[in-house]
Every structure is written in structure tokens, then in C-alpha cells.
Design goal:
This protein is α/β, with parallel strands linked by helices. It has helices spanning 24-36, 47-57, 73-82, 100-109, 121-139, 173-184, 192-200, 209-223; strands at residues 17-20, 41-44, 61-64, 91-95, 113-116, 147-150, 153-156, 161-164, 167-168, 190-191, 233-236, 240-243. 40% of the residues lie in helices and 18% in strands. The strands form three sheets. It has a five-stranded parallel β-sheet with strand order 2-1-3-4-5, sandwiched between helices. Strands 6-7-8-9 form a four-stranded antiparallel β-sheet, covered by helices on one side. A three-stranded antiparallel β-sheet has the order 10-12-11. α6 (173-184) crosses α7. It is globular, with a radius of gyration of 18 Å.
């Protein structure tokens, strides 16, 4: 079986990091710290410019403020997740809206991580690296098993694709790794902590358990699954989740 927790060799990606914020001082600060680590950086100051930059540059990761002119950050996240070509782009929200409800809302929209302002630039760089390492793990060819099947879902591990009746279902990297972990468990129940470990590895220590529920909800929506009569992902109350028909 494929082990999603194996860390493959990792390097700074060839594609740039996109930093989106209307505060020029924050953009300069973040850019300086990322470039010190060898990342290339492109920037945008509003929502429409961010979407244009994502289409043109296909960034390795987006560092995104929420309070943007013209189109706010949450709308940007939702637009990216609806775009088949850009849907898997990792997104780190960095926002002054730092309450638990704001963080949950950002994750529900499809963000991979959430860092409240004010923040330590060094911590931001560490989070960027952690997300990119997880992304590299998710796409690495770490075992001869190329496909997993759950009912009529086919998970192609080499192409990082999920299809149903040959129709692609775009998932974020977190959603993809959750689905893989559940299928690989073969019907065994996985606790939220086990799922956090499968998705985030050692970086999951500070991630809220609620994060799993948020991403499972989004995964179900994309699969067209019904929580009350699950076809793919079943809830085991008080414990966690399992693949419904593994």
C-alpha cells in the first residue's frame, strides 16, 4: 500500500509563490523572507489581479490576504477551487481575521492553512515549506500501486486524479489525501487524529480536529455523497470516519 506519510526528496519549486495583499509593506516583508529561502515571488494587490496571476503563473502556492479590494480573499479561494486546472493549488490564508470561526470559514472555502495577523515572517516561511512538502508527498511516486478504487471512484495516484464514470472530480491536495487514507484503511475507522496525521504528518500537531470535519464535508460535497446514506465516506459518531464501501 502507498504510505502518504513518507517524505520524498524536496526542493524549492520552479514555479513562483504568489503573494496577494493590498498592504505594500506586508508584501515587501513576505517577499523578502521568501526570496531569502530561494523562492521566486510574484505579487498581486486585489482579487481580480490574484486570479489573473494564478492563471498566468500557475504558482506553486498562494499566500492570500482576505480583506482585498474588488474581490475578497474568500471569493478568490472559491474561484480557484472551481477551476479544474488550478483547483489543486495550495493556498495559505494570512489574515487579521483570526477568530476560530474565521479560520473554519477559510478552511471550508478550500484553504490549506490559515495564519492570523500579526504573524512572524519566519513562521510564515515554515508554513509555506510545510504545505509544499505535503504537496510533494501527495504527488510523489512512492509505490508501485498506481490506482485505488472505491465503488465507482477511481483514484489515480500517479496523475493525482479522481474520476467517477471517467468524469474528473477536482479535489484539493488535502481532500485527495483524506480520500486516499480512507480507502487504504479498507473499511477500518480512522480517528480524526489519524486522519490529521495522514494529511499533515508531524505538522498536524497544532491543527484543529474541526479541520478534518471541514475537509470531509467539502470532500463529500464534491463526491455528491450523502452523510445520512453514505456511498463513499461514512461517519462513525464519536470516533471518526471510514470508507463506506471499502
Amino acid at each position: 500500500m502507498l504510505s502518504m506519510s513518507i517524505q520524498p526528496p524536496w526542493r524549492v519549486p520552479d514555479r513562483p509563490i504568489l503573494v496577494v495583499d493590498d498592504d505594500a509593506k506586508i508584501v515587501r516583508l513576505v517577499r523578502t523572507y521568501l526570496e531569502r529561502e530561494g523562492f521566486s515571488v510574484v505579487t498581486a494587490a486585489d482579487g481580480p489581479a490574484a486570479l489573473d496571476a494564478i492563471e498566468r503563473h500557475r504558482p506553486a502556492l498562494v499566500v492570500l490576504d482576505l480583506m482585498l479590494p474588488e474581490l475578497d480573499g474568500r471569493a478568490v479561494v472559491r474561484a480557484v477551487r472551481r477551476d479544474d486546472e488550478a483547483a489543486a493549488t495550495p493556498i495559505l490564508i494570512v489574515s487579521a481575521r483570526g477568530s476560530t470561526l474565521d479560520r473554519i470559514a477559510g478552511l471550508e472555502d478550500g484553504a490549506d492553512d490559515y495564519l492570523p495577523k500579526p504573524f512572524s515572517p519566519a513562521e510564515l516561511v515554515l508554513r509555506v515549506k510545510s504545505i509544499l512538502r505535503r504537496s510533494a508527498t501527495a504527488t510523489a511516486d512512492t509505490a508501485p500501486v498506481a490506482r485505488l478504487v472505491l465503488d465507482d471512484l477511481v483514484v489515480d495516484l500517479d496523475r493525482y486524479e479522481v474520476t467517477r464514470a471517467d468524469q474528473p472530480i477536482p479535489l484539493t491536495r488535502v481532500e485527495f489525501r483524506l480520500l486516499v487514507a480512507l480507502i487504504e484503511a479498507g473499511g477500518r475507522v480512522l480517528t480524526r487524529d489519524q486522519l490529521l496525521d495522514a494529511v499533515y504528518g508531524q505538522d498536524g500537531a497544532d491543527v484543529l480536529d474541526r479541520t478534518v470535519d471541514v475537509h470531509i464535508g467539502r470532500l463529500r460535497d464534491k463526491l455528491g455523497d450523502d452523510a445520512d446514506a453514505p456511498r463513499y465516506v461514512a461517519t462513525v459518531r464519536g470516533i471518526g470516519y471510514r470508507a463506506a464501501r471499502a
